[in-house]
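Board notes (copied after class):
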Amino acid sequence: MIRDTSAQDRLVEVKSSPKKKFLWIGGAVVAVLVLAFLMPGVTRLFSADASVSASRLAFATVQRGPFIRDIAAEGQVVAAVSPTMYATYGGAVTLKVHAGDTVKKGQVLAVIDSPELVNKLAQEQSNADAMEVDYLRAQIDARKKQSEMQKAYDNAKIDQETASRDYDRYQQAYKLGGVPQMEVDKMKDALNKAKITMAHAQGDLNLDNNTGTFDIKAKKLAHDRQVLLVQDLQRQVDNLNVRSPVDGQVGQLFIAERATVAKDAQLLSVIDLSALEVEVKVPESFARDLAVGMGGEISGNGNNWKGLVSAISPEVVNGEVAARVRFEGGTPKQLRQNQRLSVRILLDHRDNVLTVQRGSFVDESGGSYAYVVRDGIATKTTIRAGESSIDKVEILDGLKEGDNIVISGTDNFKGAQRVVISR
């Protein structure tokens, strides 16, 4: 048999150490204190739906103060008046100016050679002269006919008076027995005939007056119509000399020298540099609040000028609306067309308004909720947002002054109701 070592073992008495006992007690106390300190955080951690690092978020504090809604954009200087000249008639064009030349109002810029139009004017002028002669002849003929009718009327009147006297004389003679009854009857018939002739002469005179008046009026109307046609052709011939409608500079030349163009073809443009405006592109979301007459500020080249919104485009292009801002009090002299300037348009200005810095939370939630941060926990809270400016959002309900909210990065919350913000 193999012997064990039991004969060699001996019982050793272990003596307790007070120092180790105190160490164990101290460790237990520290563990309890640490657990008590960490318990709220652990509780919050388990009560939240998610945890997101603060480095991935942006925060802002709700404040009360002035609220200014404005639009800031880059604009381009454009001419408020920039007419384009067109050919009023077809023909060969001779240019009298070059691009960039300074011109005055009424100065001839180009001349259109149109022999056809000039010849047509001469023909119609000749027709107008002939119609004027016909009109004058009609007046003379009317006076001549009136004179003849007046003569016939006067003769008939004299014949009637003569017949009336003869009839009276024959009646007296018949009463005295000097003439027979037959002679009296003959004189009576002659008197009646003279009266009829007198009546017809009176009618012919009135009718001839009306006929002559109508004929003269017809000739006059025809002549006036021809004169109007000549005046219109004269206007067209005068427009063959293309003149500048404003003081300014020649812009673009759309044709070459001595080019033959059709009617209504573009010839050149003139820029009125005394009336410049700034054209800006406004986001569609702000365009509904924009109105003609709103004040603004134009800046560039170290200068600032006051401006007014003068026009707003009725259509939306690529999510933007074009608007024009004119300079208040006159156009600055040092500006040039197509120059870039900064424009700020004031939409609204109110005091004592509850606002918070604008962030992506407005677009993500549509202004219906925000995450309010308290004790490291972001809680989803229903709010009601009002108007928005470039850097602020008006808060109508759901938040109070001093609240700290998450304004950016809420997409990391995945719509959770409570989120722990870790450091």
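Comment from the instructor: The first helix runs from residue 18 to 47. The two ends are 71 Å apart (CA to CA).
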